[in-house]
Amino acid sequence: MKTLGRLLVAAVLVAAGLSVPAGPAAATGHSRFSALVFSKTAAFRHDSIPAGVAAIKQLGARHHFRVDATEDAAAFTDKNLRRYDVVVWLSTTGDVLDDTQQRAFERYIRRGGGYAGIHAASDTEYDWPWYGGLVGAYFRDHPGSVSPQFQVATLKVLNHDTAATKPLPRRWDREEEWYNFRTNPRHTVRVLTEVDESTYDPRGYSQPGGSPGMGPHHPISWCQPYDGGRAFYTAMGHKAEYFSDPLLLAHILGGLRMAAGVARFNCGR
């Protein structure tokens, strides 16, 4: 059974374009780090959160990094955050930290910590400008009034020289709830993927008749150095079943490794 389990893990990794661990020695390899997955919500709650937490824990088990998960904002203390190389904000929404917890997270990033935001992490803490800079852009809306909420569209992968993009095809067709953002962050971050608006209807729900999309350069995932730390964000991950997509998991794994500082963080502009 152990042999069968190793073969199944190997098949998933190969499908994702990732290397297969050679054996027990891989546990002490360069990928080892610690991640805290934070998924508290104070507004809309995505029912994909349990699947996202489970998927990241499975990645940790396969790639030998520790994963803790919480929805308790009391975890945001200086002492506790020092235990982690990256804090993953998984579809958080609304105002989830108080002032003291916010200051602790700012100090964590300034000491060289890592941030990884997934999907609704950009729909979080609108009254905390520092966080808005960290995530890169705030959520504005998505299709769903004059156009379907979930659509298959083509992602353009802009480079393959990061851990988050190396496993991906140059053009990647997938279904998603495609976010429009309040601002385009491309002048302050390194954009990793863009969605091609000619391949779907990007009109959002926030204006009568549908708000516009974001034009020919519509970012979906990006990374940046920020205030002494490392930040990665992807807008993908609305549905639970998306967290069984090997390519999305490879993208997230690469982003986590980059933000944790164990993979090359070539995210300057």
From TrEMBL:
<keyword id="KW-0808">Transferase</keyword>
<dbReference type="InterPro" id="IPR029062">
    <property type="entry name" value="Class_I_gatase-like"/>
</dbReference>
<feature type="domain" description="ThuA-like">
    <location>
        <begin position="35"/>
        <end position="257"/>
    </location>
</feature>
<dbReference type="InterPro" id="IPR029010">
    <property type="entry name" value="ThuA-like"/>
</dbReference>
<feature type="signal peptide">
    <location>
        <begin position="1"/>
        <end position="22"/>
    </location>
</feature>
<dbReference type="Pfam" id="PF06283">
    <property type="entry name" value="ThuA"/>
</dbReference>
<keyword id="KW-0732">Signal</keyword>
<dbReference type="GO" id="GO:0016740">
    <property type="term" value="F:transferase activity"/>
</dbReference>
<protein>
    <submittedName>
        <fullName>Type 1 glutamine amidotransferase</fullName>
    </submittedName>
</protein>
<keyword id="KW-0315">Glutamine amidotransferase</keyword>
